[in-house]
Structure formats: structure tokens, C-alpha cells
Amino acid sequence: MASTTPQTLPKPIKMAILDDYQRLSTPHFTTFAPTELQIDTYTDTLPPSATDALIARLHPYTIISTMRERTPLPAGVIQALPNLRLLLTTGTRNASLALAACAARAIPVAGTPSDAGPGADKAFSKTTQHAWALVLALADNVARDDAALKNAPSWQPHAPLNVFLAGKTFAVLGLGKLGAAAARVAVLGATAETILTTQGAEAKLG
Fold this sequence. Notes:
Layout: E1 13-18, E2 37-42, H1 51-58, E3 63-66, H2 75-79, E4 86-89, H3 99-104, E5 109-110, H4 126-139, H5 142-149, E6 169-172, H6 177-190, E7 193-196, H7 201-205
Parallel strand pairs: 1-2, 1-3, 3-4, 4-5, 6-7
Helix pairs in contact: 4-6
């Protein structure tokens, strides 16, 4: 069967953007002529069991962009999409995509790496930073006190002002890349004890 090159693809090229609940992608495609690129944004997520419905939805598209990891694309779905030529995903690791099935059909899978910035450790993760920001915000009652200050003077009776993490226990369920990074922060000084639930956890933390 002859391959279809970008020059011979029918216009407009059809692109599906999945799970873009807030339509964050919309402003970034305003410069594309409708005659060149037709974009359909889906703000609803089909359940993983609705395979036939997902195939029917995605069948016309040449490009599929996954905004999140909410819609799995297993091998059976990839194989049932004859028009698919390019699969886009956020980040560089999406376990819900059948990469082997894409490779078998020579479908490129492209993602965007996260840049921690000059001088930052390569193991740095913005997700880990955000997770600990939430932990610290909870410990310091940031959300509670923000709401209270907006309804002054009700903030004055609130106690405790914050919770000291020293001496507390930090439990980690699973030590993948993110879990290990979060646990490492705890081990380095945030808490007195860290409970790890993965075999060989100490080796992963270094």
C-alpha cells in the first residue's frame, strides 16, 4: 500500500484534541486557516470501556493530541484508526499510549519535555515541587486563613496557626519517579519518619 505523505494528505487535515476541559488549547490554533487544519476539541472523556465509541469518535482524524492521560489509546484502538498519522501528548511519558502499536505503523509520538531551568538537578520535577507546595499549604492552613482573612475578623480565633512537620510521618504509596522524589524531600528534612511501601525503596532513594 502506498504511503501517504504530508503533501498528499487531504485538506483540511483533521485534528482531535482530547480531554481539554477548559479549552486551553483553543487560543494557540487561531492562526491556522480552517481550510488547512480542522480542529475538534473534546471536553468530555469517554470511559475506557467505551472502545467502540472511542474508535468511532477518532476514526476521521489524522492528528490526535492528548491533553491529559485520561483517554487510554491501547493497541486495539490505534490499529482501528487508519487515518492516524501523528499522536501528540503532554510530557514525555504517557503509559496510556500503545507505543509499540504506533511504532508498528510508523506513527510518530511526540511530547514536550519539562525544562527545570539552568543549574537545576536533572531529577527535578515541577510535579514534586507542586506536591510539596500543597503539603506545606495544608500544614500552614493557607486556604483556611485566606478564606478567613476575606471575612475578617473571623481569622483571629483560628488555631492552630500551623502544623509543624518535624516529627510527623510521611507515607508514600508507590515509588515511581514522582513518588521517590517526594519521599526524598521528606527524608532530607521535612519529616522525622518516612514510610515507604515499595520493595527496595531505600535503594531508590539513594
